[in-house]
Amino acid sequence: MNASAPPPVIELRGLRKAYNLGTPVETEVLHGIDLSLAEGEFAALIGPSGSGKSTLLNLIGLLEQPTRGQLLMGGRDTAQLPEAELTALRGRSIGFVFQFHHLLPAFSALENVMMPAIIARGVADDEAEADALALLEAVGLKAHAHKKPAALSGGQQQRVAIARALALRPRLILADEPTGNLDTHTADEIFALLRSFNQEQRCACLIVTHDPRLAARSDRVIRLVDGRLDSDTLFTPPLQEN
Amino acid sequence: MKFRLSFAWLVALRFLREGRMQTLLILAGTTGGVAVIVFLTQLITQLQAQIVDRVLGSQAHVILRPPEESNRRAVDEDGYATLIEPRAQRLRSIDQWETVMRLAAATPGVTAVSPMATGPGFAVRGQANRAIALMGVDAERYRQIVRMEEYMQSGRFAVAGTHAVIGVELARDLGLRLGDKLRVAVANGRDELLQVGGIFDIGNKDLNRRWVFVTLPLAQSLLDLPGGVSNLDLTVADIFEARAIADTLRGATGLSVDNWMQTNAQLLAALRNQTVSNNLIRSFVTLIVALGIASVLVVSVVQKQKEIGILRAMGASRGMILRVFLIQGAVVGAVGSVAGSALAFTLLQVFSSIYRNADGSPLFAAELEPRFMVMAALVATSVGLLSALIPARRAARMDPVQAIRS
């Protein structure tokens, strides 16, 4: 790796994940994944159902622990970290966008976007509120800031979820079928939004998707089949520093 | 600058607000529980205090009397038969009672001492006569033992010369009014003509019929106790210290010492039993409230699974999630205790206007002591906190992936 290349945000070495360890029904879902994601990279993760996409995303998202192999975040081996530090690291450096937005129904759009900052700092502050408002403005929802998620449309909810994922300027965005339950038009909007934040903020994005049209608009397509990397195609070189 | 809640408080209060019906139900349960406990505690405390007060209204806390006289065994070691008859107890004076009185007055916890010469006699007027207890007292001192001035129906509680203070029943039996004369005779044949200087109603017919107060010297001469007293009455600061003080004085003087706790052992046992059953009720109500809070929170944790998972994914630690649910329990307890105290106060108002004494006065005062409210708040909040412990731990241990997927 030459010195001018952006450093990897995340690096997976021989990552394996098995469930029901030590029982007769033990099943390995991921059979040794080697993968690295560079800063500013926009990658689509595709593959048939049951290929282990979600598991891989959960592992990268530090929501689950690999059975074997190494997972390095910003050069740090995460296997050594205690649960509390993993949680803090997850909060600070990873933003999640789920298929079903997963906003907190009891909180307004603004509060949902502020939540990562509230969690990280223990209490809301003016800065978090200003940041959240700016993000809502960026996703075109400033006027809806004080509405509860239930009062928003599916596309609007997903835009709030994207704003929330970006709240702490994470280095990595993980999206699990973010356009899965949206119509084509809205899906395009959401995708464009992710793409623009990726380019503005230089955060790496890993998007699980079933939609070949969207995958085709990514920089890189990683295809997973039966828990193994089947192909890893670079369409356009990642953006270089100016 | 805006006031901002910390993460755990913000989420806890929002969860409570969101779960409207559940929150209302569990608050109602907690409020009811607290109200029952506060109401019962206040009521029973008041009634017990009143009963004790009423009982002690007509008797001394501690009474010193001369030791009982008994026959000595007059049979030598080899004797094979002995006959012991109980000895008749004559009226005697306490030896050096003035010294004993000073000693008693100096005993810590004793607030008043009153010497008395008392013995049996007859009150005679015309053809009518009644058995009485002649009570020779120093009115000033005796007032500190029994608050006679509160019981006076007419006249004053003051004895001087041949003035006597009698009870309302005796006055009726003998047809006496203030200023009338009556003759008092005792067994040894002496008698004295007295003038009624006051009539009291102590709330006990028997005592109203029997007690006749005269001056100490008059009683001493009638009862043949020149310069002597038959007993010393004591008032103590803490009524439940009476037994201990009595024991101290018995050891110090060698006299026969009675205390109210001993003479009213049945009453005390009844009060104790009442306290025990009250505690039992309180424990069960507390337990039921705790189970109610816990079960509602357990359901809430299951309902909020997804939210918990999302919060965990966003970096909320286990401790933060734990606190979210502990706070919910504590808030339910705290709010319930305030509402419960208010309800208890209302209940006391209602019941004090319904339940009345024979004389029409309220059976108990419709007031709530602040200490019971503070106690209720502390207990309810800790119970809420404790009952939230199991649900909160369950929430904190939840696997974020499973929780989000659910």
Walk me through what this model shows:
The complex is a heterodimer of chains A (242) and B (406). The two termini of chain A are 19 Å apart. Chain A has helices spanning 53-60, 83-93, 109-121, 126-138, 154-165, 184-201, 212-216; strands at residues 8-19, 27-38, 42-46, 68-73, 76-77, 94-97, 172-176, 204-208, 220-225, 228-234. Chain A has a single domain (40-64, 82-234), classed as Rossmann fold, CATH 3.40.50.300. Chain A has 242 residues and is of the alpha/beta class. Chain A has a 6-stranded mixed beta sheet with strand order 6-7-8-3-9-10, with helices on both faces. The longest helix of chain A has 18 residues, at 184-201. In chain A, helix 3 packs across helix 4 (126-138) and helix 3 (109-121) runs parallel beside helix 5. Chain A contains 7 helices and 10 strands. Chain B is α+β, with helices and mostly antiparallel strands. Chain B folds into 2 domains: 7-54 and 267-405, no CATH class; 97-254, no CATH class. Chain B has helices at 7-18, 20-56, 97-106, 139-143, 148-151, 168-174, 205-210, 216-222, 242-253, 260-263, 265-303, 305-313, 318-354, 370-387, 389-397, 400-405, and strands at 62-65, 110-125, 128-137, 152-155, 163-167, 181-185, 191-200, 211-215, 231-236, 256-259. In chain B, strands 2-3-8-5-7-6 form a 6-stranded mixed β-barrel. In chain B, helix 11 (265-303) packs across helix 13 (318-354). The radius of gyration of chain B is 33 Å and the shape is elongated. Classes of the chains: A alpha/beta (242), B alpha+beta (406).
Secondary-structure blueprint of this entry?
The complex is a heterodimer of chains A (242) and B (406).
Chain A: E1 8-19, E2 27-38, E3 42-46, H1 53-60, E4 68-73, E5 76-77, H2 83-93, E6 94-97, H3 109-121, H4 126-138, H5 154-165, E7 172-176, H6 184-201, E8 204-208, H7 212-216, E9 220-225, E10 228-234
Parallel strand pairs in A: 3-8, 3-9, 6-7, 7-8
Antiparallel strand pairs in A: 1-2, 1-4, 4-5, 9-10
Helix pairs in contact in A: 3-4, 3-5, 4-5, 5-6
Chain B: H1 7-18, H2 20-56, E1 62-65, H3 97-106, E2 110-125, E3 128-137, H4 139-143, H5 148-151, E4 152-155, E5 163-167, H6 168-174, E6 181-185, E7 191-200, H7 205-210, E8 211-215, H8 216-222, E9 231-236, H9 242-253, E10 256-259, H10 260-263, H11 265-303, H12 305-313, H13 318-354, H14 370-387, H15 389-397, H16 400-405
Parallel strand pairs in B: 3-8, 5-7
Antiparallel strand pairs in B: 1-9, 1-10, 2-3, 2-6, 2-9, 4-7, 5-8, 6-7
